[in-house]
Design a protein that fits this description.
The chain is α/β, with parallel strands linked by helices and 436 residues long. The protein is built from eleven helices and 25 strands. It has two domains: 3-106 and 263-335, FAD/NAD(P)-binding domain (3-Layer(bba) Sandwich); 114-261 and 350-406, FAD/NAD(P)-binding domain (3-Layer(bba) Sandwich), CATH 3.50.50.100. A five-stranded parallel beta sheet has the order 5-2-1-9-21, covered by helices on one side. The protein has a five-stranded parallel beta sheet with strand order 11-18-12-13-14. α1 packs parallel to α9 (317-335) and α5 (126-145) packs antiparallel against α6 (149-155). The termini are far apart. The mean pLDDT is 94. It binds flavin-adenine dinucleotide. Flavin-adenine dinucleotide (FAD) is lined by residues 8-14, 32-35, 41-42, 44, 77-78, 103-105, 123-124, 165-166, 298-300, 315-318, 320.
């Protein structure tokens, strides 16, 4: 009898379980995702700024699984788990399982600030990235016809909240676009410099990285003309005004939110199985506390059994990939009645890009820190080879070479999906309303 493994979430973690078990006798794998594609979050910001196409960093699950008879895809969103019946309830029906793998990652955390959820621009999914691209381009178009000076300033001021890699990467990219592209694309705005702010509640940018990387990043952003404001906690976003905890304010119509993530709580799992950040508590084999055949991997789980990471692993792609592979191998070992292997994370280092030829990279063993051109080249290479297949790698490489040679790109189209009942091509769609 084949064992049915249902995987919820086809990100780095889930896809690696599915691919490791593909073509393996004894398993039927069903991968469930709310989207019909896998995507590569580290390059979302390049889609959001019009430097890469959506299809460069995404790939449909059904095409990916075409050649595997024992792997199926189901479009749907997990709603509830019924552990006593070994069943999951999806928005698109029910599935029974022998083993359940939860690999649902995280979502944007607005820390309970409703106005930011409503009026801020998040940066977590491919939908977020395309929304952000449309929104930025629409606001620039609005700026070209705005006659009120105060409103025009708000339209050309961008606040990015969150000084982690995503915030740094967006700030760097936008400041280079301001220098190389905006003045050519928007001659109506000649004389307007606009302003880009990167704000963080903590005292450093790229907090988990080395001091050398932090200093280089801070100095480089400042040189690029980004206003970096640290120890600035965003408290609210009202009437186009970002309000900080210390009372300071910045007027803007564009607040990009890259300030935090949270996991998701699912009905059916005991409340005691959730830990910090709503992450599922798992043992050394990634089994969820208080369950017998439910596993959690990647960003959504919290594991403290790894002796080098007693406070849990960082929420990064390599942890998700390695946990996915280890879990798949343990399923195979279970079938062969072999003992299971506990998860131990091999840290391969961390990196962030700030702009053309400007990046930082920290390697753990031997401990080495790179900045500038070498780190930039390493970043490009690692991100390129990490894309899901040759097709996406070649297309991304082509777009990067074109952008490098011309300091520009030609993907700044405002694409407005409209239902056939509401379509009105003459009216720009306001994707995120102004903060009220
Ligand atoms: C903008 C950005 C940049 C990043 N840059 C880097 C980087 O440079 N380096 C790095 O190491 N890490 C980076 N990360 C973090 C990295 O992307 C995550 O650590 C990694 O994606 C975690 O993998 P995962 O499989 O756990 O979750 P994800 O990759 O988030 O996958 C979760 C999957 O679950 C699906 N899903 C969620 N909820 C449900 C549901 N209820 N039902 C069905 N499906 C569901 C989602 O559609 C998604 O496909 C970045 C993240 C972001 C957002």
């Amino acid at each position: 009898m084949k064992k049915t493994i249902v995987i919820i979430g086809g990100g780095f973690a889930g896809i690696n379980v599915a691919l490791q078990l593909a073509k393996k006798d004894g398993f039927h794998v069903i991968l469930v995702d709310r989207n019909n594609y896998n995507f590569f979050p580290p390059l979302l910001y390049q889609v959001a700024t019009g430097f890469l196409e959506v299809s460069n960093i995404s790939y449909p699950f059904r095409k990916l699984f075409q050649k595997y008879d024992n792997v199926n895809f189901r479009l749907g969103e997990l709603q509830k788990i019924v552990p006593e019946a070994n069943k999951v309830i999806l928005t698109t029906g029910e599935l029974s399982y022998d083993y359940l793998v939860i690999a649902t990652g995280t979502e944007s955390n607005y820390f309970g600030i409703e106005n930011i959820k409503k009026y801020g621009t998040p940066m977590k999914t491919l939908n977020d990235a395309t929304n952000m691209r449309n929104f930025l381009l629409l606001k620039m178009e609005e700026a070209t016809i705005e006659t009120d000076e105060i409103e025009k300033k708000k339209l050309t001021t961008i606040v990015i909240a969150g000084g982690g890699p995503t915030g740094v990467e967006i700030a760097g990219m936008l400041s280079e676009m301001r220098k190389n592209i905006f003045r050519k694309d928007y001659p109506e705005l000649a004389g307007y410099k606009g302003a880009i702010y990167l704000v963080d509640g903590g005292p450093k940018v790229l907090a988990p990285m080395s001091e050398k990387a932090q200093k280089y990043t801070f100095d480089t952003l400042v040189k690029l003309g980004v206003n970096v404001k640290l120890n600035k906690q965003v408290k609210d976003y009202v009437n186009d005004t970002v309000i900080f905890a210390d009372g300071e304010t910045i007027q803007t119509k564009i607040l990009i939110w890259a300030a935090g993530v949270t996991a998701t709580v699912f009905e059916g799992i005991p409340a005691t199985s959730y830990g910090r950040g709503k992450r599922l508590l798992v043992d050394e084999f990634n089994k969820v506390a208080g369950t017998t055949n439910i596993f959690a991997i990647g960003d959504t789980c919290f594991q403290t059994t790894d002796k080098n990471f007693p406070n849990g692993h960082p929420q990064v792609a390599q942890v998700a990939i390695q946990q996915g592979k280890n879990l798949a191998k343990n399923f195979l070992r279970t079938e062969r009645n072999e003992s299971l292997v506990p998860f131990v994370y091999t840290d391969k280092g961390s990196m962030a890009i700030i702009g053309t030829t400007k990046a930082v990279a920290d390697l753990p063993k031997p401990e080495l820190h790179f900045t500038g051109f070498i780190a930039w080249f390493m970043w490009l290479f690692i991100h390129l080879v990490s894309l899901i297949n040759y097709r996406n790698q070649l297309r991304t490489l082509y777009n990067w070479v074109a952008a490098f040679l011309t300091k520009d790109q030609s993907l700044r189209m405002i694409i407005r999906p409209a239902s056939k009942h509401t379509e009105d091509a003459k009216t720009p769609t306001v994707l995120v309303p102004d903060a009220k």
